[in-house]
Amino acid sequence: MKSILKKILLGITHPQEYICAAAGTISGGLDCYALVKNERINVTDTLLFLGYRPLVMGWITKNFEGKELELQFVRKDNQALVATLKLKTEKKIPLEEKTIYLFKGIASLQKFESRFHQFMFRLYERLRPKQNGNIDLDPELYNQVKIAYSIPREIKVVTLGKENKWNVFPTDLHGKAGASSYIISLRHDKQPCRQLIETGKLALWSVNADHAQGVYAMGKNHSRDFSSAENFSFTDSESPQFHFPEPAGAIGCEELELQSTIADVGIHRIFLLKPIHANSENDTSRLVHLHRSYLQWHIKNGFPFTEAKR
Questions:
Q1: Distance between CA 59 and CA 54 in Å, rounded?
Q2: Is pLDDT above 80 for 134?
Q3: What is the per-residue DSSP string for 123-164?
């Protein structure tokens, strides 16, 4: 009965909020364009998603000097507008010949859900009891997050270590910042943030989508201190430079050294790192996920998708 009511009143047809897949099984969908003066720039593969409270996006460019930025999410097949995000410039950090711009979400519109379902969701959020300890997002912010997750976000697994003890956890708030830098965003109140500052280096692993269940289960390690290797699912292999143990399901590795903390935005601390070694190819089996609100629209419009069970 509860699932039927959710379907009728909220439009929810999938029990999981975020749905996993292998990157190569998602076809069609959306492209993301940034509007800069009178130009539309395709930023689908270059705009970084770095935070969800508030929504934080990062863009490495030398073509922007404004105080606000509009993103348009359009269908790949016919360029029809499906969603928009409006952002304001939060911070800019010089980087070689370009600049890292950090933006914070301020407004959004999307057509993944009907107007009725969006209204009912806002009403539901206003009336439902809030639970202590949860990161609650208000309806506007949650709408921004749904749009951000309409582009497949790769979940990678991070290994941190000290004195032969380890922590291993998933993240999707990361991305390349030009040819010689990398950005990762961590919650500043969780253990990995402190552990990265303490140790100064990490191994970042792409993971096969068949291991989605195990990767999601690692989420609890965001609250975990360093521990011995037998408490984690490691293979017998290790990263080439740092000799960090390889997590189960890994299909590529990047080793990164901490350079600096570049910003604190909301609950997020954003770090700049330097690549030391990279063996991470664009494997079509790598694990990504999307928000169900978008995915329901994706499937309804006939775009191919194969779910990775978790």
A1: 16
A2: no
A3: HHHHHSPPPTT-----HHHHHHHHHHTTS-EE-EEEEEEETT
